[in-house]
Amino acid sequence: MTERIVLAYSGGLDTSVAIGWIQEATGAEVVAMAVDVGQGGEDLETIRQRALDCGAVEAYVADARDEFAEEYCMRGLKANTLYMDAYPNVSALSRPLIAKHLVAAARQYGAGTVAHGCTGKGNDQVRFEVAITSLAPDLTCIAPVRDLALTREAAIEYAQRNDLPIVTTKNNPFSIDQNVWGRAVETGFLEDIWNGPTKDVYDYTDDPEFPPPADEVTIAFARGIPVAIDGAPVTPLQAIEQLNQRAGAQGIGRIDIVEDRLVGIKSREVYEAPGAMALIAAHRELENITLEREQARFKKLVDQRWTELVYDGQWYSELKDSLDAFIDDSQEHVSGEIRMTLHGGRATVTGRRSDDSLYDFNLATYDEGQSFDQSAARGFIDIYGLSSKQATARNQRRG
Ligand code: ARG
């Protein structure tokens, strides 16, 4: 039987060419695999047909939008995931899901190798291949751009020569990856890090400098997950989609940073993640009133380590599993409502309420009738400050 290779297929030029390119270079049959993670654009049937027209022997397509939102984006939300305090791991969250479907397709169609369209310079190759090796150590991975000399010029030339049903004029200078959690844009003139992003870089967000009237939204959470918006029940996917629209209209969630890739390169990235950034802001504030202080402080460290692991492609690692257990446990009381004003590029929390709140009005208030015994504070401070007092006395004695 002819060897089979499952290719992660986007429907675009590079992976369309990769179908025939891999067949010619390896003699194997190619099975195309495409998943919908809310990237928008063409429907799965169009993509399936194009894969077959480009020479794939089979096509595996799956609508994974709910799966992505529930099992990947929500884990990111519970971890308030912001790599380098800025990037909500948009691409990094999708790779383990795509890898899972690559493995499923390999099993279904009897393939021993999987392929992806990444270059040899980025994080995504690492994420795919570490995920594959963790899920299915028996599978081999190849990347035609990296391993089989499939350059952009060669791809355009190949598509024209073989009359592939794909637009080959490459007038979009950017490399873009998008899903329901956000959108990542790199390359082109953005590689000069002094160049500001132009309007055409953005798609999920409108210009925050010319916003429509302010939009007030109330998000209800249950155990860290959004369950209703303005009183109407939502699934995780619907919550992200609705906030992409409403926060996107206000220009919320535009990010422009130079980022440390795992492979050692610093790269300039422009992101848009309106729904993700609004949800993270709301979730964080709900944690502020529902997590006990020491648990909250420690969770910050866990969130950061979780975020770096996921950025670095360790989704299916032992440590990530252990951190997930901590994070899930921490969400037990993260239920309640956050009210925010979305306006002019900012999602500002204006109110919070929760049956699980640790905020105690009677303890916090400076009004009459407060229940905090202020006289107890003196003794606490005497003892709390004692070791510093002793050290200072010693330093003065020793000159
Ligand atoms: N630098 C980001 C990351 O590593 C985004 C990469 C997305 N890929 C792209 N073709 N723009 O997660």
From TrEMBL:
HAMAP family: Arg_succ_synth_type1
Superkingdom in the source lineage: Bacteria
Sequence similarity: Belongs to the argininosuccinate synthase family. Type 1 subfamily.
Organism lineage: Bacteria, Bacillati, Actinomycetota, Actinomycetes, Micrococcales
Protein's name according to its UniProt entry: Argininosuccinate synthase
Binding annotation for L-aspartate: T119, N123, D124
Residue spans crossing the bilayer: none
Subunit structure: Homotetramer.
Arginosuccinate synthase C-terminal domain mapped to chain residues: 174-390
Single GO term (MF): ATP binding
Taxonomic source organism: Brevibacterium rongguiense
EC number: 6.3.4.5
GO biological process, alphabetically ordered: argininosuccinate metabolic process; L-arginine biosynthetic process; urea cycle
Residues that hold L-citrulline according to the record: Y87, N123, R127, S175, E259, Y271
Signal peptide: none
Pathway: Amino-acid biosynthesis; L-arginine biosynthesis; L-arginine from L-ornithine and carbamoyl phosphate: step 2/3
Keyword set, alphabetical order: Amino-acid biosynthesis, Arginine biosynthesis, ATP-binding, Cytoplasm, Ligase, Nucleotide-binding
Pfam families linked: Arginosuc_syn_C, Arginosuc_synth
